[in-house]
Design brief:
By secondary structure, the protein is an alpha/beta fold. It has three domains: 30 residues; 45 residues, no CATH class; 170 residues, Glycogen Phosphorylase B (Rossmann fold, 3-Layer(aba) Sandwich). The protein is 46% helix and 12% strand. A three-stranded parallel beta sheet has the order 3-4-5, with helices on one face. A three-stranded parallel beta sheet has the order 6-7-8, sandwiched between helices. α4 crosses α9 and α9 packs across α10. The longest helix is centred in the first third of the chain and has 17 residues.
Length: 262
């Protein structure tokens, strides 16, 4: 409960509603197989003490391939998700503030669905951090525009605290854009086989900032060979492209789904 209050700013009523929903879910599925689209869900349910029969469909979800290729890069770093604290938009702004201390002309982008109140809060925080001039906001952009902006981004920073398989990561990789994300179970389990998704310690903004600044320094020869060996290959290579081909919407395994149901 303390973790939810500190990290998500949840009030007691919201925490209690979530607890009640978890209990109702446990009772509802106690004798029923549960179909999941993420390899992390069985692990997380077990950690919560929910002992049910979870069957993972792989792939159980997919995205349409990005229609944009070989576009010039406009943004250094991009946030692409629902614009909420849980998805890490405020952490993203703090990372950008750290990067601006290292390089003043950082160009960042925040895009995703945002209600009016949250849009105001995000802009206010950018001003408080002194980075309003570095950040562009594209709230509620149509998908084609969002895909084009992803393809024009050098890197997606995705400090989400809650996720299942992360369509944001799939779509970024589809557009040829690598990702830095917190190593929560959804990211660790589903993107273990690609170096195009860098995993950092959850909630450690400094580590996420250091990782990105080292990557840039390595690209420009500003650090030793050890760091260069880690960061110079952070791109969407063959393995990640194979992963994307596996998780397009046309490859959702309906036959596997029907087998699991029956």
């Amino acid at each position: 409960m303390k973790n939810l209050r500190v990290n998500f700013n949840y009030g007691l009523s919201k925490i209690l509603r979530g607890y009640i929903r978890l209990k109702l879910f446990t009772l509802a599925v106690c004798n029923t197989p549960v179909l999941a689209v993420s390899k992390s869900i069985p692990y997380e349910l077990e950690k919560l003490g929910v002992k049910v029969d979870v069957r993972v469909i792989d792939p159980g979800v997919g995205v349409n391939p990005c229609p944009f290729t070989n576009l010039g890069k406009v943004f250094d770093v991009t946030f692409f998700a629902r614009v909420t604290p849980e998805k890490g938009v405020f952490d993203f702004l703090r990372v950008v503030a750290g990067l601006v201390r290292w390089r003043r002309n950082i160009k960042a982008l925040v895009m995703g669905f945002a209600g009016d109140e949250m849009a105001v809060k995000v802009r206010e925080m950018a001003s408080e951090l002194g980075i309003a001039g570095n950040v562009e906001f594209r709230f509620n952009a149509p998908r084609d525009e969002a895909m084009r902006l992803l393809a024009q981004s050098k890197l997606v920073i995705y400090p989400t605290r809650l996720d299942s398989i992360s369509l944001s990561v799939l779509e970024a990789l589809s557009c040829g854009t690598p990702v830095i994300a917190y190593a929560i179970p959804a990211i660790r389990f589903n993107y273990a086989d690609t170096r195009a998704v860098i995993k950092t310690k959850p909630l450690d903004i400094e580590e996420m900032t250091r990782g990105q600044s080292r990557r840039w320094r390595a690209r420009h020869g500003g650090v030793g060979q050890g760091s260069r060996g880690v960061y110079k290959e952070v791109h969407v290579g063959k393995r990640s492209k194979n992963r994307m081909e596996h998780t397009t919407i046309n490859n959702v395994d309906i036959k596997q789904l029907l087998r699991l149901v029956h």
